Fold this protein.
Amino acid sequence: MNASVTELAELATQWSAALERMLPAAIQLRHELHAAPQVSGSEHPTTARIARELDTVIRFEPVADAGGVGRIGPQDGPSIALRAELDALPMTETTGASFSAEGEAMHACGHDVHQAALVALLSAAAGLELPVGLVALLQPREESYPSGALDIVRGGVLPRHDIAHVIAAHVHPGVRVGAVAVGGGFINAAADEIEVRIEGRGGHGGYPHEGSDTVAAIAHIALAIPEVVRRTVAPLDPAIISVGTMSAGEGAANVLPASARLFATMRTTDPADREPLFDAVRVMAERTAEAFGTRAEVTRTEGEPVLVNDSGLALGADEWLAQLSVDGAEPMRSLGADDFSYFSEAVPSLMMFVGVETAGQESQPPLHHPRFLPGDEAVGAVARALLAGYLAAAERVLDIDHHRSQFARVTGERS
C-alpha cells in the first residue's frame, strides 16, 4: 500500500471507530488480567490468555521465554512494533476493587491496562489494510532482571521481523487525566547499581587503635557520594546516586566489624556520564577506605541505558493525537528507568505517558503502590496513544513528506 498522508488520515478514522467498538470487551479482559497477575518470569499464563483473545487476529511465537511476538498487516518489509509488558509486582493489593488480585502479586504499574489496550487495538485492526506491518511484542520481565526487553533485542527479534520502530505507552498518575505526554530526547535515566565492600581488621570497641574502623570508612564514603556527583556531572544533566543499603557488624556494641557494605543506585541521563561517574565514585571510595586503614572493592552492575525518544516520532505522534482528539501534555521526564530503553537504543523508538487517576482517593497513589488502580477509561486512552505512535512511525517508514499546512487541512476535514 503506497499510502499518502490523506490515506493515513482515513485509516486513523476507520481504526479509531473500530477501536471504540472493541473497548467494552477489552475492559472486561483488563479486569480478568488484573485479577490474575503473574510476577516476572512467570507470565506464561498471561501470554496464553492474550493469545486466546486474539486467536483469529494474530499468531504468537514464544520470545524471551514467557513472552510472545506476532505480526499482522504486510508480512514483508519494515514493520512497527507495539510493546506491552506482562509482569506484575510481588505485593498485596489493597484497592478493594471487585476484580482485585488475591495473594502476593498485583498489577501496581498498570501493565494490565497496557495489555488490554494492545488487544483492543489489534482487534480493531482486523479487516483494515495496514500500510506497514504491525508487530505485537508481549514482553516479560520489565520489573526485574534479567530484562525481557534486552533478551528480545539480543535474541534478534527486531531484525528478524524487520522492526524499524518500537512504540509504547505507559499509564502515569503524574500526567493530567486522559492526556498523553510525548516528547523527544531524554525520557528515563540509565540505571546502574554500585556496590562498595570495605575490608579491614576487626577489633574491640575499647581498643579501636588495634583494629581498623570499617564503619567510619563506609559512612564517610556514603556522605561523600553526593559531592562526587556534583563535581563530576554538569548541573544541567540530571544525575543522582542514592544509597539504599548500608550494613556493618552483627549487632554488638563493642565489636568493630572487619567488613562493611554499601549498595546504591546510580541514575544518569547522558550516556557519556555513566563511566566517568562510576570511575569517580570508585576512586573516592578506594582512597577514603585507604585513609581509614581499610580496603575498598567497588563494582558496578550495569542496568538499563538512557531511554531516548526519537524527536521526529514524538512530533508526529503529537499531531496524530490531535487528530484523534486526544489532549497533549508536557513531556514526562524522570530519573526512573524502564527497559524499553533497550529498544530505543537499538532503533528509533517512542515511549509515551498516559494520564490516569485512581478514583476515590484524596491523594493519588503513585505507581507501585498497593492502592494504585487506573480507571477503565485508561484502556482506550492507552490504545489511542499506541495508534498515534503507529501512524507517526508509518509516516517515517513510508517516507511520507507532507507540509504541516497540508496535514492541518486533511485533519481539519476529518474533524
